[in-house]
């Protein structure tokens, strides 16, 4: 295979996390008596950091207030996310095919890496992922490429040896900013037309199609 390392986003790339994310935001809005909860708006923020998502959804930019919202969200997330996250139907077969061909696999996500680790353990697929870089592992988040660059350093890979796969324009921007090859997968809320505005090797409709690029 051309690439020695394949990096993935998590939410809407490897797994459908709609149900727990919507529930966590709903709970936070209700707990804090916030108006304007909208399921579709919440879904469109998936892929953002929680800081940016709450700013987008509430307009609140007071850092201490946002910290309070995030704390409530994370308590609820601990209760609901692991049990309610579902892998896409071709996730396991894609990861297994990559591993069988000697490709290293990493995750670079705006979600807490420790939570991703627990989700993968629960879904019995942690063995396919060699390293996880999450929210807590970087100082600057996507579309800044810090997480991607950290992954390159961890695996001791050159940029031309790496492919990043993501479902969001934010992932596309991060790859572009890091000068790393990118494949957009339309399993999230970013459309093919949206992806066409960014540098990409290919735009695919499902995860297993990336094997044709590798």
Give a quick rundown of the structure.
The protein is an alpha/beta fold.
List the helices and strands and how they pair.
Layout: E1 5-8, E2 15-16, H1 18-31, H2 39-44, H3 50-58, H4 63-84, E3 86-87, H5 91-100, E4 104-108, H6 113-122, E5 131-133, H7 146-155, E6 162-166, H8 169-178, E7 181-185, H9 192-195, E8 202-204
Parallel strand pairs: 1-4, 1-6, 4-5, 6-7, 7-8
Antiparallel strand pairs: 2-3
Helix pairs in contact: 1-4, 3-4, 4-6
Protein name: Haloacid dehalogenase
GO molecular function: phosphoglycolate phosphatase activity
Pfam family, one: HAD_2
| The CATH topology of the largest domain | Rossmann fold
Structural class by sheet pairing and helices? alpha/beta
The gross shape turns out to be globular
Q: If you average the pLDDT, what whole number results?
A: 97
Number of domains: 2
CATH class of the largest domain: Alpha Beta
Helix content: 40-55%
- The CATH architecture category of the largest domain equals 3-Layer(aba) Sandwich
The amount of beta strand, in percent, is 5-15%
Per DSSP E runs of 2 or more residues, the count of β-strands stands at: 8
- How would you sum up the major sheet? 6 strands, parallel
Rg over CA atoms, rounded to whole Å, is 17 Å
Spatial gap, N to C terminus: 5 Å
Identify low-pLDDT runs: none
